Amino acid sequence: MKQALDDMDKKANSPADLRVGVYVCHCGKNIGSTVDCEAVAQFASTLPHVTLAKDSLYTCSEPGQEQIKTDIREQKLNRVVVASCTPRLHEPTFRAACESAGLNPYLLEMANIREHCSWVHLHEREAATSKAKDLVAMAVARAVRLEPQFELSVPVKRSSLVIGGGVAGIQAALDMADAGYQVYLVEKSGSIGGRMAQIDKTFPTMDCSICILAPKMSEVGRHPNIQMLTLSEIKEVTGHIGNFKVKILKKARYVTDGCTACGDCIQACPQLAPDEFNAGLSIRRAIYIPFAQAVPSRYLVDMGLCLNNQGIVACDRCFQACTRKCIDFADQDKIVEIEVGTIVVATGVDVYDPTALTELGYGRFPNVITTLEFERLINAGGPSSGELIRPSDRKRPKNIAFLQCIGSRSKRSNPYCSNVCCMNTIKDALLIKEHWPETEVFVFYIDIRAFGKGFEDLFQRARREGVTFIRGIPGEIIEDISNGNLTLLGENTLLGTQYRYTMEMVILSVGIKPRSDAPIVQRLLNLSTDTDGFYMEAHPKLRPVDTTTGGVFLAGAAEGPKDIKDSVTQASAAASRANILMSKGEVKIPAVTARINTDKCVACGLCAKVCPYHAIEGSKELGYYRVVEAMCQGCGACVPECKFGALDQAHFSDAQIVSQIHEALANEPERKIIAFACNWCSYAGADFAGVSRIQYPDNVRIIRTMCSARVAPEWIELAFSMGAGAVLVSGCHPSDCHYNNANQNTARRVEKFWKRLDKLGLNKDRLRLAWVSAAEGAQFAKVIKEMEQGLRELTPDQVLETKQKLAKRVPRKGEPV
Amino acid sequence: MTVKLWNFFPREALYECYQCARCTGSCPALEVAEALGPRETILKCLNLGHDEVVEDERLWVCCTCNVCEDRCPQKIPISDLLVALRNSAARRGNIPDKLQIAIELLAKTGRSMIVHQLDEMRAHHGLAPLMPVPIDEVREVLKKTKLDDVIEF
Ligand SMILES: Cc1cc2nc3c(=O)[nH]c(=O)nc-3n(C[C@H](O)[C@H](O)[C@H](O)COP(=O)(O)OP(=O)(O)OC[C@H]3O[C@@H](n4cnc5c(N)ncnc54)[C@H](O)[C@@H]3O)c2cc1C
Ligand code: SF4
Ligand code: SF4
Ligand code: SF4
Ligand code: SF4
C-alpha cells in the first residue's frame, strides 16, 4: 500500500512542481466563532508543497473566488484546497472558479470544517481547531496526489417520463411537452387527475376543483407530444441520466379506443363494489369509468371483480349492451419499452386511515367520517349529488364538528404537520356555512396553521361566518346508538374548562402520508427518502426538485405534504430542470470512473462480476477486461475486488485515500476513529448532523468515497496497523444504495475482515459497519458516540497487538513485499 | 427530604407536549371531581416549575388509570410524571388529610377504611368473616416502602 503511494507519487509531478494554495473560510461566524481559522491557515502554510495559505470571511463570495483565481494565475498554483463547508454544497462553485482560471477542476480539494467540525463541536474551540488542522492536512495530502480529469459528455435523449398523473404530473408533462419534448405520462389508475379530481372546492380561492383541473386533463389527452399510459406501472429502469431504458407494465383495460363513454354497459353488469373515487361512499360496477370527467374518457373492466376473471367468458352482458362493440375480453397486459433522457416523479400521497385511533370511533360510528369522504359527500358528482347528509340516516346534520391533526403531528402516527388539513377544514366549514347557513360548525384544533397567501383571510372569514374554533382535541367520542349522535369529551384549553358537545356528524381532518407503494419507485430509481418516508431532494434549499439520481426530478406531494399551488409550482420547476438537460442535449458525467491498468490485469474477470452496471467487459479469451466509461457510474465497487492492483478509480484512487489515512493518523492514532462515508447517504448524514448541530466526539476523521463498496479492506488494515483506535465503514441502508446494491459488497468485505480479526484473536468491535441515511444525522452522531465509548476501554497493549498481528500477514500474489 | 423529580421522569419529554388536551379530554377523574388535568400539569411544570405544582392538592385526584398516556399522541409517559410529582409532594409533606388518615388507618388496622358491621354484612351474603390482618407484617411492608418517612404511624 505504501508502495502504491510511492509509485503514484513518482509518476505524478515532481515535488518541486507542486504549488498548493489553501483557503480557510470563516463562513462568517459559522466556522470562525468555533475554529481559530487564522491558526489553521498558519498551520497549513507549514505543510509540504503549500505555496500560500489564507483565511477569509466568505471564500464562496465573489471576492473570495476572485482571490483564488488571481492566486492561480499569479502564484502559479496547481492545486487548490478550500477548507469550508461540505463539498456537497460548494464543490461545484470552487471547481468552476478553478476552471475559469485555467486549472483543471479536479485539482480542487475541500476540507469540510463546517458540517463535520465547527457545527458539531460548537463549544470546543481547541479541539475543533486541532481537528480542522487535521482535516486540512488530509486535504492537502490528497490534493498533492490529485490528477487532472476530463469529463465524458453523454447525449441526453429529448424525451421524458412522468410517473404519476396527479396535478403535479399533469403540469410537468404539459410544461415539457409545450417546450417541444416527447413526454410519456404513466398513471397507475384508470384516469389522470389524482387527489385534486376528488376534491370539491380548493382553498384558498374556493374554485371548483374539477372545473379548473379538467381543461388541463383534456389538454394532456390531446397534446401531440404526450403519450398517456393509464393503468400502467414502471417495472424496470436501467441506464442513466440522458438515457434511461424503462419497462412499463400496461395492464389490460378490456375496453378499446372506440368507447364513447355512453355508459350503456353499466346497467347490464351484475357485479358491484365500493367506488374508490367516492371514497367508498357509493357503488360502482365491474365495468366502470373512474369519474365523469376522466381522461382518457373510456370505461374499463375491473377484472378482479368481473365474472370472467377465471379466463373464460362466463358473462357477456356488457358486451351485448355495448352497441359499438368495444369490449374485448381478450385484451392482455403489455410491456411497453421506452427510452427517455429525464424522469419526473410525481406519485403523490395517500390519506391517513384513522381506524387505529379507536377512541374516535371511525369505522364503528357511521357518522364519523374523514375530510376526503366529506369532499365526495358535498360534491355535485358525489354519492348524494352534493346534498349535505349524514351516513346513518341520510338526514342533514344540524351541527358538525371537525377534528384537526388526525394522524399528523404525532408519534403514534405521522410526526410531521400535513400542511393542508387546517386550510382544508376552513374551506369545508365555509362551504357548509355558505350552502346551509343554519348548520352549526365547530372546529377542534391545536394550532391553526394559516401561513400561505390568502390563508389568514380565509380563516378570519370563517370566524366571521360563525364557525366556532375551540382549542383542544376531544379525548373521546361516545355514540348514542338510538340516534347516531356523537358526544365529544374534551377540554377547552383556553378557558381551562371541560366540555361535552353533542354533534350530529364528526369529520376527522386526516393528514396525508407517503404512498404505501412509494418504496417501489424509490428502489427503481435509487431515490432517498427522508425520515417521514417522502422522497428526498438533493438539497433542501438549493436543489429542491433534483434528486441524488442524475436526471430524475421530484414534483408534488410525493416530496412532502403540500397544497395544489405548491405542487404545481414544483412541477413547473421540475419540468424546467429537465428541460435544461434536454435542450442542451448532452450532459457531462463526473470523471470518477474505474480504470484498468492493462499491464497488471491478468483477465481473471473478478471485477466484472461485482459491477452493478455491467460496465466491465472482456474475457479470459480476449486476454483483457476494460471499463466502458459511459456505462461506469463510478461506485468503485470493482476496485477492491482486483487482487493484482490493476484497478483504480479516478479521483478516488488508492494513493489519494491512503494519503488521507496517513495524515489522519499522524498524531495520537489510538484516539482516532477513521470513518469511511459514502457520498450519498452517510457523508450526507454526517452533514445533516452538522446542519442540525448535533454534537459528537471530535476524534472522528471522515474520508469520503462515492460508495461504501469502494472501501478496500487494505485501507482498514492500514488504519489498524498504524494504530487507529477504531474504523467505521458506513453507507446507505442496504436497499437504498445509490449504485444498485453495490453496498452488498461492503457488507461482505467487512464481514470477512471481522472473521479475520476473530481468527487473530483481536477485538472485532473496533471495526464497525453502520448504515446511515442522509436524513439520519442523529444516527451518525450516535454511532460515533458509541465508538468513542469503546475507545475508552481500549488499552495500549491491545492497539499494539493489533498492529503486530496485522503486520505479520502474508502478502498477496502479485503484491510487492 | 426532597427527591430529585427529574431522576424519575425524563424532563425533555415535557417539551414534546403541544397542549392538544386529548389527555385531559380522556380523564375519568375529571369527570367526577376537580382534578388537575394532565395537560395543565405539564404546562405548569414547564411555565411555573414543578415546585408550584406539588403544592396543588388537585394533583391527588388522578386515579392512575393510564388513559391519558394511552391517548397522548406524543407518547409522553404522563402517569410516570404524575406519580413522580406525587412522590415529590409527599416528601414535602403535601399529602391531603384524607389520604393521610387512610394510610394511618392502614398502618393501625391493616384496612384503608372502616366499614361498620362488616362481618354481619358478609354473613348475610353467606361469606365467611374476614381473616384478622397480620398487622405487624403490614407495618413492616409499609416501612419497607419508606412510607413512614412521609407519614407518621
Ligand atoms: C382531503 C384533502 C383535501 C385537499 N384540499 C385541498 C385544497 O382545497 N386546496 C389545495 O391546494 N390542496 C388540497 N389538498 C392537497 C392536494 O390534494 C395535493 O396538493 C395534490 O393532490 C398533490 O398533487 P400530486 O400530483 O402531487 O399528487 P396526487 O394528487 O396524489 O396524484 C398522484 C398521482 O400519481 C399516481 N401514482 C402514484 N403512484 C404511481 C406509480 N407508482 N405509477 C404511476 N402512477 C402513480 C396516482 O394514482 C395519482 O393519480 C387536499 C388534500 C386532501 C387529502
Ligand atoms: S362481463 Fe364483467 S363487466 Fe361485463 S357485465 Fe359481466 S361482470 Fe360486468
Ligand atoms: S395542517 Fe393543521 S390540521 Fe393539518 S397537521 Fe398541520 S396543524 Fe394539524
Ligand atoms: S463496479 Fe462501479 S466503478 Fe467499477 S466499473 Fe462498475 S460502475 Fe464503474
Ligand atoms: S395528550 Fe400528550 S401532547 Fe396532548 S396535551 Fe396531553 S400530554 Fe400534551
Question: What do these coordinates show?
Answer:
The complex is a heterodimer of chains A (817) and B (153). With 817 residues, chain A is of the alpha/beta class. Chain A has 6 domains: 151 residues, Rossmann fold, CATH 3.40.50; 186 residues, FAD/NAD(P)-binding domain; 80 residues, Alpha-Beta Plaits (2-Layer Sandwich), CATH 3.30.70; 160 residues, 3-Layer(bba) Sandwich (FAD/NAD(P)-binding domain), CATH 3.50.50; 52 residues, 2-Layer Sandwich (Alpha-Beta Plaits); 153 residues, 3-Layer(aba) Sandwich (Rossmann fold). In chain A, 30% of the residues lie in helices and 22% in strands. Chain A contains 22 helices and 38 strands. In chain A, the strands form 13 sheets. A 5-stranded parallel beta sheet of chain A has the order 10-7-6-18-29. Chain A has a 5-stranded parallel beta sheet with strand order 20-27-21-22-23. In chain A, helix 3 packs across helix 4 and helix 7 crosses helix 9. The termini of chain A are close together. The C terminus of chain A is likely disordered. Chain B is an all-alpha fold and 153 residues long. Chain B has 2 domains: 87 residues, Alpha-helical ferredoxin (Fumarate Reductase Iron-sulfur Protein, Chain B, domain 2, Orthogonal Bundle); 53 residues, no CATH class. The relative contact order of chain B is 0.14. The mean pLDDT of chain B is 90. At the A-B interface, strand 25 of A face helix 1 and helix 5 of B. The site of flavin-adenine dinucleotide has 41 residues of chain A, from helix 7, helix 8, strand 19, helix 11 and helix 12.
